Amino acid sequence: MLILLPPSETKRDGGDKPPLCLGDLAFAGLQRERESAIAALKRVSRGIHASTTALRLGPTQRFEIDRNRALLTSPSLAAIDRYTGVLFDGLEVGSLQPSGREWIERHVAIHSALFGLIGAGDAIPAYRLSHDSRLPDFVLKKHWSKAIAAELAAVDGLVLDLRSEAYVHLGPAPSGSLFLRVVTDSPSGQKRALNHFNKKGKGEFVRALAESGVECDSASSLVEWGRGRGIELELPKPGELQLTV
User: What total of structural domains would you count in the chain?
Assistant: First the structure.
């Protein structure tokens, strides 16, 4: 089973590992696309105005330009530790037992606008590039879509997609994958989709999977696992897994 997570715009500074080594990242088939994306980001990072426009930065976010300029020389950190925000707070990987963290590193990939798919344990620097960034003469969807779709099509086993729809557009998951939707029960008894708080539900869901060390190879086995943990999972239609929180 491979779980796909979206990245976060917010990231921790620093790191305890050497600078970026593209050859060490998972999904080696994306090497050429990574090199091109880094080159495009480095080009735009030469100018303050160009960077703030392309990356949609505010006056207090100039530090993001410095991060991008130091992309190839700054220390790196495991991707699962680098990203912060609501989903990663819900996952709270730092408090997992070693076996839980090992499960995360085996089963979780994060979809970065800069690096494409990366393993949870892959060492990356702090950077700024989002799905809606507009680099000059460089369209992220056109650049990544086919390459990422090909990498995901080659995955052996169930692909569980927890990405936002914006990142799905940067690389669709293959037929047979499951897209997770997080809902809650409304006062009327109807299921209601969550927006901001769906991220917390996704993080807590992945944490529960890691803590149990489960190895699910089908949608039905995943639903059954959830039933045993008191986690409400349903399959409302083909290709969709619904989590009620």
Answer: 1
d(CA 13, CA 85): 14
207 vs 129: CA distance, rounded Å: 26
- Facing residues of 182 across strands? 243
Residue 191: the pLDDT is 76
Inter-CA distances, 35 with 1, 150, 217, Å: 28, 18, 33
Hey, CA dihedral for 214, 76, 113, 166, is it positive or negative? positive
Tokens of 28: 């080696």
pTM of the model: 0.95
> Tokens 């930065």 identify what position?
57
Overall size of the chain counted in residues: 245
Domain that residue 172 falls in: 2-244
- Answer for the pair 108, 87: CB distance below 8 angstroms, yes or no: no
87 versus 189: which is more confidently predicted?
A: 87
Can you tell me whether residue 147 is helix, strand or coil? helix
Residue 112 CA to residue 130 CA, distance in Å, equals 8
Q: What amino acid occupies position 80? A: I
pLDDT at res. 189:
66
Strand partners, 192: 184
Compute the distance between CA of residue 207 and CA of residue 89 in angstroms, rounded to an integer.
10
User: Which whole number is the average pLDDT over 197-205?
Assistant: 94
Do the Cβ atoms of 152 and 159 come closer than 8 Å? Answer: yes
The answer to whether 210 and 104 are in contact (CB under 8 A) is yes
